[in-house]
Amino acid sequence: MARDKDADRSVRGKQGHQLGPEAKDPTRAVVIVPVLTRQLRGDEESSRPRLSRSADARHDEAVGLASAIDLNPVHTAVVTVADPRPATLLGSGKVAEFADIVKERKAELVIVDHPLTPVQQRNLEKELNAKVLDRTGLILEIFGERARTKEGTLQVELAHLNYQKGRLVRSWTHLERQRGGAGFLGGPGETQIESDRRILQDKITKLKHELETVRRTRDLHRAKRKKVPFPVVAIVGYTNAGKSTLFNRLTGAGVLAEDMLFATLDPTLRRVRLPHGTPIILSDTVGFISDLPTHLVAAFRATLEEVVEADLVLHLRDISDPDTAAQAEDVERILGDLGVDAADTTRVIEVWNKIDLLDEGNRERLLAEGASGKSPPIAISAVTGEGLDTLKALIETRVSGELETMTVTLSPAQLGHVDWLYRNGDVVSRTDNEDGSVTLSLTATHSAKQEIENRLRRKNGG
């Protein structure tokens, strides 16, 4: 099953924008999406079977990943693989077919949307006469381009080095042995591949040390935030679920929010005041994706610690995507790896985004299904703002407790608290008394009510 693209047209898939005539010509790429009918041993032994993804969804995601770094997919194909070959993954007939396509389309790069062993990658490069990137390599390239902060750059570089270390092959046969030692007594030295591995390992050790410094700095910042105890709310979700759009809508920040996979890489934190005055720290995180490389998760653990340490996690789903259930499962797997139980509804809120993209029938059906669960998800549109008031109210309830009604009488000496009460509660009525005191009836969160009582007690010298 193949899908041809016009070889003379710059394509960025459904995620991107067409490049202008003055833009540099993007690299011409062939995108191959293998669909294995027989799972590999590692998948067979998994204790938890994975939801199957549609071939169309996998194809669109692979094209989206390629488009995320301005590649020009001149030919894309979904290939059914009944018997994965140890040497090339694909059968010899398919390899020969793609070699002809690469030559005909003048492609410089072949993307295989599946993990490849070092041997498979090297053999495919020889057979196809083009550079080959597997899914892991492509994600690393995207992350490398997206990283903006020093921390992000260090994390991507560490993941790259770990990836490369496993792919060093004996390509320097003319340097099979180097002489070591001095004079005539020197024995055979290390092989070139061993030398390169040692150099890579030295770089990895140095980067880990730098990242440890970054981690300690993050711990200090986190400790400072805990001294001013603002609850932390982290937004997580599959890439392109709309996390940055929601973040911008709630905070008014200008975080990059394009319809593009991995539009945001570096984490962003902003302070937000909820409707009844509760201040929180909102954290936007890197998007998750299926088959996210384990060493990439390890490299980004310093960033993802914001999720681990969060008081509340918003699991944002693109409910309009046909593969939303499989995407949710991938996110839950990664959360589980980080030690966050996605089934813990006291800490994790499931949020269904992009409901504005659903037709009326599907919308009613999905909302009815969601409402039947123990902890119904919150349906929103980060673009139109629909459902955001409900979401903010639930966040405030979770971090500060249910709303409570109270009546407060402030003496003339306590009137300095009036402004604070208006900002941190909903004032229902106000009575200005003849003695100069003020009586307020208001609703406030449980934590705000306790703060009010503490403030008045301190003012009274209690």
From TrEMBL:
Organism: Mesorhizobium vachelliae
Record carries keyword Cell membrane: no
InterPro entries reported in the protein's UniProt record: G_HFLX_dom, GTP-bd, GTP-bd_M, GTPase_HflX, GTPase_HflX_N, GTPase_HflX_N_sf, HflX_C, P-loop_NTPase
Protein name (database record): GTPase HflX
NCBIfam families associated with the record: GTP_HflX
Principal subcellular localization: cytoplasm
Keyword Ribosomal protein among UniProt keywords: no
Matching HAMAP family: GTPase_HflX (MF_00900)
Alphabetically ordered keywords of this record: Cytoplasm, GTP-binding, Magnesium, Metal-binding, Nucleotide-binding
CDD domains per the UniProt record, alphabetical: HflX
Domain Hflx-type G: from-to ranges: 231-403
Oligomer and partners: Monomer. Associates with the 50S ribosomal subunit.
Biased composition (Basic and acidic residues): 1-11
Family: Belongs to the TRAFAC class OBG-HflX-like GTPase superfamily. HflX GTPase family.
Subcellular location field: Cytoplasm
Encoding gene, per UniProt annotation: hflX
Residue ranges of the region described as Disordered: 1-27
SUPFAM superfamilies named among the record's database cross-references: P-loop containing nucleoside triphosphate hydrolases (SSF52540)
Known role: GTPase that associates with the 50S ribosomal subunit and may have a role during protein synthesis or ribosome biogenesis.
Top-level taxon of origin: Bacteria
Pfam families named in the record: GTP-bdg_M, GTP-bdg_N, HflX_C, MMR_HSR1
